[in-house]
Target: Cupin domain-containing protein
Amino acid sequence: MSGLVRKSFDSPEETRPFEDGKGRVDVVDLGAGSVGRGVFEPGWKWSDHVKPIAKTDSCQAAHIGYCLSGRMVVVMDDGERLEFGPGDLMITPPGHDAWVVGDEACVLIDWQGFADYAKR
Model:
């Protein structure tokens, strides 16, 4: 990769809406990989709003991300559970469910798991 690259989530290469209008993933390709911004609306839950798209029992994407706003609970298939909020960095291995907590949208930037996330 040579030279500078500038992209914006205001004009992503792709936007993938979740079921029932509960949010979306905006994806930008930086050449060296994709970065996603997930907007998860209040009431969003992976098992309700992405599972029908992914067609897996739990989310099989690995995530490395940063929470900009809102709150999200992630529960691993083995029961381990953690809540993330603004300013938190996260590493989430494959095999989890997740949902928004409260009445504010959760906005996350993800450097690993959104390349194929919620792709129809």
About this structure: The domain at 14-110 is CATH 2.60.120.10 (Jelly Rolls). The two ends are 29 Å apart (CA to CA). Residues 46-49 form the longest helix (4 residues).
